[in-house]
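Hi all, long-time lurker, first post. I run a small reading group and we've been trying to get comfortable going from sequence to structure in the token notation. Rather than ask abstract questions, I figured I'd post a concrete chain and ask someone more experienced to write out its structure so we can walk through it together at our next meeting. Sequence below, copied exactly:
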Amino acid sequence: MKRTALIFKCFVLLFSALLIFSFCGCSSLFDMLTTKEVPEEELEIIWGRDGDTYIYSDKIELFMSNSSIDKTDLFFIKDYNDDAYWREILSGDFEKAAWNDYKLFIKMEGTYYMFDINAYEVPQEKYAEPEYELKEYSEKEMIELYPNYESFNWYD
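-- Answer (accepted) --
Happy to help. Here is the structure in token form:
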């Protein structure tokens, strides 16, 4: 008899917990566990099973894949002030990426790419063509322009 009462109490407790999570929004709890904000870089990091997403200043998004099978990293710019509008501007197997002083650096196939986040303005009109510049540098040019580039906080 005591065992049946204990099982019933456990069932009620579990059901109550599930009910509370469904009303509170389980997705918000999940988001809280998989998202980190870094205010000094205006950065939101979202950890995922397939890779990590880095959103800087709500203007650019970098996806770094964790997959060993299909290693496709992606770089997007916000195309309009709506979360659904992002434009892919670079993809491939990024060797590493770093943020430094509102500039995003990506190294891919021996070439360094630099995107100035502060210089980019998200278009206000829905179908306006975004104006941006993705600069390319060789390693020699990186050394000349950014002598301390190896001290940036690189992630791969």
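A couple of things your group might point at:
Strands lie at 35-38, 43-47, 51-56, 60-65, 73-78, 86-92, 96-100, 103-108, 111-116, 134-137.
The two ends are 58 Å apart (CA to CA).
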